[in-house]
RNA sequence: CGGGGUGUGGCGCAGCUGGCAGCGCGCAUGGUUUGGGACCAUGAGGUCGGAGGUUCAAAUCCUCUCACCCCGACCA
């Protein structure tokens, strides 16, 4: 491609709207253009990179037995009602009305459609496992698109679905897919880590995310350097012992005693006023879960993880209660506890029952109880881990301190089980002739986000640094002073011969100063740069420079094509055999 | 949805105590240049996000509204 003809141009100035590095570089390099909030066009350079990513993913999916197909974006809303997920997706589901006022969803994901498809195609255990997948545009009405391609409302996703005969077979498929994902990230040069995750609106039994750790990430990963435990903060567990402190568990229960605590409405104030550590208090937080008032209690030094709480409650919608709702439940905000409160569901963190003699609200303004005890003074309908893990907490598996880092979610895989296949009757006959629902899994990768993550991970102050496997072109030729001394003719010849040798070339044939060309080359980030100028031609050579290297070298013009072709091959081979990133 | 911010030529911005719509980059033409974002000359390009209002006069003041960005809530 001649740069003089390329659609899309580079800019010197960083666009005002772009904050994250990948967003700035994608715009400045002329790879994408914004159309609206969370809506982007891919320009030719960006689209070429995206297609390379797509092809790598396709190869890895095919390698493990995936079968590419294509499902529609328009999905009958009834399918979503059948699965019940129109509720959990809520407003994130884009819907449209057709001319008959019939409601259709713009697919945010395709579990419903693919399960409906399996219902028609799947008959026997001999058909299993099935691993259909597609690479297709998805629509999600995100509350807040952000970070350029990091979170958008229309995006291209590879979504694979697996149908297996039983749990064990699903586990095997799941592990196969995890390895396939690892291969994808390795080939993209991305160091992704696999972490335990909450399965969110997709639902299901288990799920893992693949994270690229970087400060621009939206998610927080809790991980343990000692044993390798890693989980999304939404999911992460931690040991709730207090380092160096002896918990009150095991002590005798002392009698409940009301004490005056004027103006002490927060855990901090109560603990200070009573000269007790925060973990000797009981924290109560109020929620409304699917319309029902809920009291969540947790040890005072811990915070409630709402994702865990939502799972514990098995509810679809969870929000903090408004102050009037708290009042009408008969609760004195700041002095609250489940003690003596009836008509509200109570959820207790698993830290609570094992504690003794905690300070709890007396449900009377200005007063707290000493020596509250779970079981004697109140009980919960659910006891579960609903605590937010924090940096420095003890690892749930080995006890070493956990670290917290931000990460970009570049893939998410789920064990769905049979709930969806049961709802949509995706069943098969097993060896005994018994009808059974298929055991499902699903596996998603967002391509645009992957592209952004690669840039976040691989750039410098000049621009993008693509791996050879992803670069929009393999080689970038800069012809300096193209009107002088045969520069053009040499540049043209190299351009033609390299292309004839199967090398993809971006050829800067513009009439522009050397600085402009070099800066654009660095910005666009093609891994090999070939400079032709009167200076190099004086010695019968051209200059070769790697984008990732500081120094450059000279190659004789006659040997340039063979030399460059070898460098491209070597780079591709080296990237392909690089160490696994996961 | 809560909080903060921004909308003026393709991009980045100034103008905002009302009085001719500007600067830099980019773009076009001509000329001089050329190894890390050259220079000179000439030129094209703007319903100042939109609607309403105040005023002799509105980019500027007032009201409403829309869009976009950031933080949070939210989010396979």
In short:
The chain is built from 15 helices and 31 strands.
List keywords for this structure.
582 residues, alpha+beta, BirA Bifunctional Protein, domain 2, YbaK protein, Rossmann fold, 5-stranded mixed β-sheet, 15 helices, 28% strand, elongated, RNA-binding
Describe what you observe in this structure.
By secondary structure, the protein is α+β, with helices and mostly antiparallel strands. 28% of the residues lie in helices and 28% in strands. It has three domains: 18-69 and 117-219 and 404-456, BirA Bifunctional Protein, domain 2; 257-384, Alpha-Beta Complex (YbaK protein), CATH 3.90.960; 465-576, 3-Layer(aba) Sandwich (Rossmann fold), CATH 3.40.50. The strands form eight sheets. Strands 3, 7, 8, 9, 10, 11, 12, 21 and 24 form a nine-stranded mixed sheet that branches. Strands 16-14-15-17-20 form a five-stranded mixed sheet. It has a five-stranded mixed sheet with strand order 28-27-29-30-31, sandwiched between helices. The longest helix is centred in the N-terminal third of the chain and has 22 residues, at 167-188. The radius of gyration is 29 Å and the shape is elongated. The mean pLDDT is 92. The structure holds one RNA strand of 76 nucleotides.
């Amino acid at each position: 491609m001649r740069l003089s003809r390329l659609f899309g141009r580079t800019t010197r100035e960083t666009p005002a709207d772009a904050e994250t590095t990948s967003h700035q570089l994608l715009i400045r390099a002329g790879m994408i253009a914004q159309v609206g909030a969370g809506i982007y066009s891919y320009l030719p350079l960006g689209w070429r990179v995206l297609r390379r990513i797509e092809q790598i993913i396709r190869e890895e999916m095919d390698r493990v037995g995936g079968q590419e197909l294509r499902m529609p974006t328009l999905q009958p809303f009834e399918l979503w009602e059948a699965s019940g997920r129109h509720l959990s997706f809520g407003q994130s589901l884009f819907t449209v009305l057709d001319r008959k006022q019939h409601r259709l969803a713009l697919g945010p994901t395709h579990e419903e459609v693919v399960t409906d498809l399996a219902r028609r195609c799947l008959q026997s255990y001999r058909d299993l496992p099935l691993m259909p997948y597609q690479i297709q545009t998805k629509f999600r009405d995100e509350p807040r698109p952000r970070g350029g391609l990091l979170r958008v409302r229309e995006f291209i996703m590879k979504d694979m679905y697996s149908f297996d005969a039983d749990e064990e077979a699903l586990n095997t498929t799941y592990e196969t897919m995890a390895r396939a994902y690892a291969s994808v990230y390795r080939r993209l040069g991305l160091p992704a880590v696999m972490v335990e995750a909450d399965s969110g609106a997709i639902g299901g039994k288990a799920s893992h995310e693949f994270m690229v750790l970087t400060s621009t990430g939206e998610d927080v990963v809790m991980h343990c350097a000692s044993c390798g435990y890693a989980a999304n903060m939404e999911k992460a567990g931690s040991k709730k012992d207090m380092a160096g402190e002896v918990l009150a568990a095991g002590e005798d229960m002392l009698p409940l005693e009301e004490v005056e605590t004027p103006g002490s409405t927060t855990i901090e104030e109560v603990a200070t006023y009573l000269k007790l550590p925060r973990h000797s208090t009981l924290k109560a937080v109020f929620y409304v879960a699917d319309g029902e008032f809920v009291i969540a209690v947790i040890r005072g030094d811990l915070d409630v993880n709402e994702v865990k709480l939502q799972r514990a409650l098995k509810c679809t919608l969870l929000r903090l209660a408004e102050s009037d709702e708290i009042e009408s439940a008969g609760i004195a905000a700041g002095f609250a506890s489940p003690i003596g409160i009836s008509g509200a569901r109570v959820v207790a963190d698993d830290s609570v029952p094992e504690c003794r003699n905690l300070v709890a609200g007396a449900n009377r303004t200005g007063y707290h109880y000493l020596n509250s005890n779970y079981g004697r003074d109140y009980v919960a309908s659910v006891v579960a881990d609903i605590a937010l893990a924090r940096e420095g907490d003890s690892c749930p598996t080995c006890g070493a301190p956990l670290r917290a880092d931000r990460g970009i979610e570049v893939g998410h895989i789920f064990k769905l089980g049979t709930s969806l296949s049961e709802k949509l009757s995706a069943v098969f006959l097993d060896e005994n002739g018994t009808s059974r629902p298929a055991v499902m899994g699903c596996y998603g990768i967002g391509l645009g986000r992957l592209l952004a993550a690669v840039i976040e991970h691989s750039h410098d102050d000049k621009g993008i640094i693509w791996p050879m496997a992803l670069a929009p072109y393999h080689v970038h030729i800069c012809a300096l002073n193209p009107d002088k001394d045969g520069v053009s003719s040499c540049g043209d010849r190299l351009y033609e011969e390299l292309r004839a040798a199967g090398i993809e070339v971006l050829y800067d044939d513009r009439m522009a100063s050397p600085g402009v060309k070099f800066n654009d080359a660095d910005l666009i980030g093609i891994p090999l740069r070939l400079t032709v100028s009167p200076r190099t031609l004086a010695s019968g050579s051209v200059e070769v420079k790697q984008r990732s290297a500081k120094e450059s070298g000279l190659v004789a013009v006659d040997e340039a094509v063979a030399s460059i072709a070898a460098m491209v091959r070597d780079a591709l081979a080296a990237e392909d055999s690089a160490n696994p990133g996961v």
